[in-house]
Amino acid sequence: MAVTLVIGAQWGDEGKGRVVDFLSRGASVVARFGGGSNAGHTVRVGDKTYKLRIVPSGVVAGVEHCIIGPGTVVSPAALVAELDTLEFNGVDTSRVWVSDLAHLILPYHIEMDKAAERERGEDALGTTGNGIGPAYVDRVARTGLRAGDLLDLRRLRHALFARTHELRARGIALDLDATVADLARQAERIVPHVRDTIALLHEQLRAGRNVLAEGAQGSLLDVTFGTYPYVTSSVTVAGGACAGLGFGPKEVDAVVGVVKAYQTRVGGGPFPTELQDHDGAELRKRGAEFGVVTGRPRRCGWLDLVALRYAVQINGITHIALTKLDVLDTFYQLSVCTSYEDAGDASLPFAIARGARPVYESVPGWLKTTVSAHAFEDLPYNAREYISFIERHVGVPVSYVSIGPERSQMIVRPGAPVAVAASAR
Ligand code: IMP
């Protein structure tokens, strides 16, 4: 077998964590390829809820190797806290590996992130405040530090010293001794996890094992293809998995696009199908749409199939995992955006930024509970029709349907990738 990619097809928060957890049981490696602890991936098992930030979601299912890849940015403080919390909750983290090439998020990146947001005033992007942007800026500016640098604290101190002047000029007073002392403490905990993850990944691929690449955020937050500048600073689309983990495109077997049955967005930026009315409030309440990382209420709206068709193209999505279908159980009628008015011939991000208006088709609701369905055939007729409607409009099969947060609340349809997952229920 080879690599299955799991990526978010909307603005993040699609439920990638629970899909990765589900598919993990057929994989020997789960690897994060981009982003940092701005992500909040939730996995629920029985009465326990795990909130993963940078550690791959496969850790909960006990996957053999969980890789935090070269394309990620890692806050040592946040990683230590996450490893400790997982261990405290009985999750074995001994096989969580951090690429020595992953860049470090240091406290001054967080300061810079917050200062930049303050300066933007009303035009703030609504970042998660985790220092993601400034850490990626340092990476491309070639001034960053990497996880491998934690192995040589003398060199690391030297590199930090070289930056003090420039940071001071930007209003950031770096306390070198205190920063190095903190990093030394964190290094003790992290260094045993730091390794060449590229060699490990290829060893597993050569042995014919299944690898799951876990995306973070969503396609519409991608730094190039998203609704710029209201995006994150990493590559969130499927192509980012190759560049963020170090393997070639021919290894990829399937690209699973995770799609919420409606649309949400957290932070600033345009959102064509946003609902400011009772339906929006109902989606937020029923879907518990509050950010895992920041607790912010998420903006909610109807499913946008124009944006989804775009996500299918830019990612090469082969299968859809449709999540939170049950949230729609109480709606008498649903609207789905199938085209934009006034879109011109600009690319989708520019069309959205210029105020393209959604054109809706109405679809009847089902007004029945779906949470205990075990097979596609158990779903109410109108729920099945809603799924067929999506498939017809985007040309990709909906291979997984989740109707609740439990592992058992996932319907797997014929042809779904990672065969082992189907028998793992
Ligand atoms: P940053 O990634 O913290 O720089 O935030 C940039 C934008 O991406 C903001 O609009 C955030 O709300 C959004 N964002 C970042 N991570 C996530 C996520 O995991 N889910 C949803 N939105 C996110």
CATH homologous superfamily of the largest domain, by name?
Adenylosuccinate Synthetase, subunit A, domain 3
Tell me which CATH architecture of the largest domain applies here: Alpha-Beta Complex
**Total DSSP helices:** 13
Radius of gyration: 21 Å
Helix proportion range: 25-40%
Distance N terminus to C terminus?
21 Å
Mean pLDDT: 94
CATH topology of the largest domain: Adenylosuccinate Synthetase, Chain A, domain 3
Summarize the main sheet: 10 strands, mixed
- What strand line-up does the widest sheet have? 9-7-5-2-10-1-11-15-18-19
Distinct ligands: inosinic acid
Could you characterize the architecture of this molecule?
By secondary structure, this protein is of the alpha/beta class. It folds into three domains: 3-99 and 194-253, Adenylosuccinate Synthetase, Chain A, domain 1 (3-Layer(aba) Sandwich); 104-190, Orthogonal Bundle (Adenylosuccinate Synthetase, subunit A, domain 2), CATH 1.10.300; 259-421, Adenylosuccinate Synthetase, subunit A, domain 3 (Adenylosuccinate Synthetase, Chain A, domain 3). Helices cover 33% and strands 20% of the residues. The protein is built from 13 helices and 19 strands. A ten-stranded mixed beta sheet has the order 9-7-5-2-10-1-11-15-18-19, sandwiched between helices. Strand 3 and strand 4 form a beta hairpin. Helix 2 (76-88) runs parallel beside helix 6 (176-190), helix 3 crosses helix 4 and helix 5 (153-169) crosses helix 6 (176-190). The longest helix has 17 residues, at 153-169. It is globular and about 65 Å long.
